[in-house]
Specification:
By secondary structure, the protein is α+β, with helices and mostly antiparallel strands. It has a single domain (about 20-120), classed as 2-Layer Sandwich (Alpha-Beta Plaits), CATH 3.30.70. About 35% of the residues lie in helices and about 35% in strands. The protein contains 3 helices and 6 strands, in the order E-E-H-E-H-E-E-H-E. The chain has helices at about 20-35, 45-55, 85-105; strands at about 5-10, 15-20, 40, 65-70, 70-80, 110-120. The longest helix is centred in the last third of the chain and has 20 residues, at about 85-105. The radius of gyration is 16 Å and the shape is elongated. It starts with 6 loop residues before the first strand and ends in an 8-residue tail after the last strand.
Length: about 130
């Protein structure tokens, strides 16, 4: 398997299934971005610089997944759209992320910690 990546192994009757933590992070990111009121994910500046220098872009930026046994904890940083309820959007993200990871992997999600890092504004003006 690829170096530098963490994999979660699930024994199966036909062998073993290995799921990259990156897969869970991208699943969490996609679920969060579908929630009404979420503008974007907020990336960690340090990881963005590393990705830029390495020539790759991480689709799960702003998401950290921790796996212990068969349980998953997710930390996700995001920006909320101006005018949206921060509390409602964050709660909806928690539910969406927990459901998406549980459905995709079968793991129990013990916590989804949402870190609201800021607010986004829609500066686009529609001209006629």
């Amino acid at each position: 398997m690829a170096e530098g990546r963490e994999y979660i192994s699930c024994p199966d009757e036909l062998g073993c299934i290995h799921i990259s933590e990156d897969v869970l992070a991208v699943t969490a990111a996609a679920a969060a971005l579908e929630v009404e009121g979420v503008g974007s994910l907020a990336a960690n500046l340090g990881s963005d610089i590393v990705e830029m220098l390495a020539g790759r872009k991480n689709l799960g930026k702003g998401v950290r997944v921790t796996v212990e046994e068969n349980s998953v904890t997710v930390d996700i940083s995001l920006l909320v759209k101006y005018g949206s309820s921060v509390q409602e959007s964050a709660c909806a993200v928690q539910t969406a992320v927990a459901d998406a990871i549980a459905n995709a992997s079968g793991f129990t999600v013990t916590a989804v910690n949402v870190h609201v890092a800021g607010v986004t504004f829609d500066h686009s003006k529609k001209s006629k």
